[in-house]
Amino acid sequence: MGSTENSLKIPFIESLNFCEEHVIKVDNNFQENANSSFLISVINMTGLLIGLGQLSTAYALENGGWASCVLLSIGCGCGISCNYNYTDIAYQAFGTNGEIIALSFIYLDIFMALVSFTISMNDNLNILVSGTHLNFSWFSLSTSQTLTLIAILVSLPTVWMRDSKISFISTFGIFLSLSICVSVGFTAVFGGVKANKPIPVLRLENILPVSGLYIFSFASHMVMPDIYRSMKDPSRITEVSIMSFGIVTFIYTVLGFMGAKMFGPEVRSQITLSMPENLIFTEIALWATALTPITKYVFLVAPVASQVERNFPSWMSFSMKTVIRNTVGSLFFIFVLVLALTILFFEKVLGLTGSLVSVGISMILPCFFYLKIYWPQISVLNLVLHFTIITACTIVGVLGTISNIKSLIETLTW
C-alpha cells in the first residue's frame, strides 16, 4: 500500500485514511504480479465502468426529468469512494459476517450485470438481423438468440485472461462506447432527427423506477479491487478513479441529454433501439452495442474466478489452479447466458439491480462500515450525515425494488 494518507482519501468521509489503515494486505503472489501502469489502470477502469449506463441514461432522464440527473452525480461520487478492497473493509468492520454479506452483494451485482449485458446484446442483435432466419432442427432459438449464444462462446476465452493482459480489451471497449456516442451525435446532425424535444423538469411518480437505472450506471465499480491489486503504484488509485469516473460521467450525461432531446417520450430503454432504421450511424451504434458486452465479461467474471483461486490450498500447482479457475468462470458465464435468454426485459432487470443491489453496495454498506470502524471518532454532524444517507438510500432501495419487481412480474405475466 502507499504510505501517503492523502492519496487514499475517500470523498464525503471525515477520516479520510479509512482504506489505507484498514485494508488487509493481499498475499505476496498478487503483489508480485502487480504491473499495471497509471495509464493502463485508467484504461481498465474506464473500460469497465462505461457500459449499460450510456444506453439507459436517456430513458432515465426522459422518464425522471432532467433534475433526476443529480442521481447520476451521486452514483459517481459514491463509486469513487468504494474502489478499494471492499471485502477486507467489511471484514475489518463486522468480521466474517460482514465479509460474507459484502461478497453476497458483490456476486449478486456481478451476476445481474452480466445478465443485463447479455440481454442488451440480444436486443441489439435482434434489430441487426431482422428479416434473417437461422433454422436448426435440434433447438428452438430465435436468430438473435442463436447469434448471442455464438458470441458468448467466442468470447469465453477472454474470461481466462489476467490483470494487465486485458488492457487491450478495455481499449476496444472504450472505442466502442465512443462510437456509440459519436453515432448518436451524427444522427442528430446528419440523420434528420431534430434534438428539440422538451425534457420535463421532474417526474416524481417515476423517480423510484429510474433511480435504479441511475445507480446501476456505476455498479461495476465493485470489481475495482482487482484493478487496485494489479497497479504498480496502488497509492494512485484515487487519481485513477477520479479520472475514470469523470470521463464516464461526462459521456453518460452527454448521451442522456442528446437522447432525451432527440427522441423525447419515444426514447426506449436503450438509446440505440430508438435510432432511425437504414442509417449507417444506426448500424454502427447497434454493432458497437452488441459487441460491447464481450469487452465487459472478462472484468465481471474475473472476481468470481479469482476469489475461488485465492481459496485454493498452497500445495496446488499453478496449472491446476488455472484449470479450476477457468472452469468455474466458464460455468458461471454459461449459467448467466441461459438466464439472460430467458428474461428479455432490459430496463426491468437493470432497474431491479440498481434498487436491490447497487444502492446497498455503493451507499448503504460503505456508510455502515465507516460508522462501525470510526464510531468513537465521528463528529455529530458527520454521524447525522451518514445516518441520513443510510435512511434515504434504504427507503429509495426498498421502494424502488418493490416497484421494479411489481413491474417485472406484470411484464412476465402479461
Automatic annotation (TrEMBL):
Keywords from the UniProt entry: Amino-acid transport, Membrane, Transmembrane, Transmembrane helix, Transport
InterPro entries, per database record: AA_transpt_TM (IPR013057)
One Pfam assignment: Aa_trans
Record's keyword annotation contains NAD: no
Locations listed in the record: Membrane
Residues covered by the Amino acid transporter transmembrane domain: 35-406
Protein's membrane topology: Multi-pass membrane protein
Name of this chain's protein: Amino acid transporter transmembrane domain-containing protein
